[in-house]
Amino acid sequence: MKFIITGGKPLAGTVVVRGAKNAATKMMVAALLSSEPVDLENFPFIGDTDITAELCKTFGAQVSYDRAAGRARVVTPSITNVEALHLTRRNRIPILALGPLLARAGEAIVPMVGGDKIGPRPVDLHLNALRALGAQIEERADRYEASAPRGLFGARIDFKFPSVGATENALLAGVLARGVTTITNAALEPEVVDLIKLLQKMGAIIGFGSGRTIRIEGVPSLHGARHHILPDRNEAVSFGVLGVAAGGPVRVKGAVQGHLMTFLNTIRKIGGQYDVEDDGIIFSGATALKAVEVETEAHPGFMTDWQQPISVLLTQARGDSVVHETIYEDRFGYANDLNAMGAQMTTSSKCLGELPCRFHGMDFKHSAVIHGPTPLRGATMRVRDLRSGMAHVIAALLANGTSVIEGVEEIDRGYENLDERLRALGAAISRQE
Ligand code: EPU
Asked: What's the confidence (pLDDT) of residue 88?
């Protein structure tokens, strides 16, 4: 599947942000913790929620959709199967099912996780957390085999890095564990907090301590709940960048200021315009954009998933911008593609920033200098991963001429009907087999 995009059209209008991919998938897994229905509103109908529905159904869940109302229901009267090996390397969600399966069935076999190719992406923190709670886990070539015949027990979990997935894993395992679980150096991304809100509605007892601490008091069982999924921050940023780069105004309905503070600060420093409204944010362009320095960080810092759209915007800014990626080792693969379109983006294994970075002194090209402004021209590209695929789309929309973007199934994993929504803003984009 490919997108054909003819760039250079002014983009303006209103676009509605869907529910967050990186919350919806975790909430579907959270539904496995209860025998009662969990209703998820503002549900994104995307590739990753399809894969997660398949995962949940494998374990005995029934998943039903009301597409018109944007709602999904996941109900798991009982766990009928504890193994999901056919879903190997499709995305990163299966490992999160270990906690719910151990709590309800005492055993679980999940495949090695996949997801975007943006670095080695180990799962040591996930496994250490579950082991601390009493799970026995064998790592095989293609799978993790876990058991907890006596159940899980509350424990102290101290993360060396505030991993989003490992924090979610500890939450999903800790809620039904006996006793108190304390997570220190936890990830506190809005998607993690939204998962905690759903778990609280289901009957869990979870609180926040000073610093990055989460305290869970285990309960014997959880019940059903209804939850409105928070809006997708990555969609909001992608459309916001388009509003700034392609004239605008683009009204990003559903974008939440409190989730986007560092992005909005960066847009202001670049010279883009935005207005915060009650139910969204309006983005529009400026006559001259300025170079800036950006470093990705755990929340509330500048998110790693915003690095790609902002880098495309920086190709249109005057001067030398510096981008330091401190979360993933290998997230600048798309620089070659932008350079083929006329950008001047040079990557480096040096830490070009102020933050102490885990990749210091290693051979990972995790910093970039972008010299701008450079006009972009259309090109043929293949999507490397979800977020850099969106960078391709944004660059193609800004470029002179026509671009062909192949492999858009990756983009469909995270963005619902992207082509249709961009056409509504005035983009010349079509989809072909
Ligand atoms: N890490 C470890 N050990 C672990 C877990 C993580 O070393 O056990 C390292 C990773 O290798 C990485 C860093 O910690 O260098 C951050 O990983 P984290 O666990 O925080 O990320 P994740 O849970 O795998 C989620 C999102 C990503 C998003 C990151 C950061 C999902 C499914 N994925 O990944 O989203 O970039 O948090 O916010 O929630 C995307 O949507 O395109 C995407 C990649």
From this structure: 75
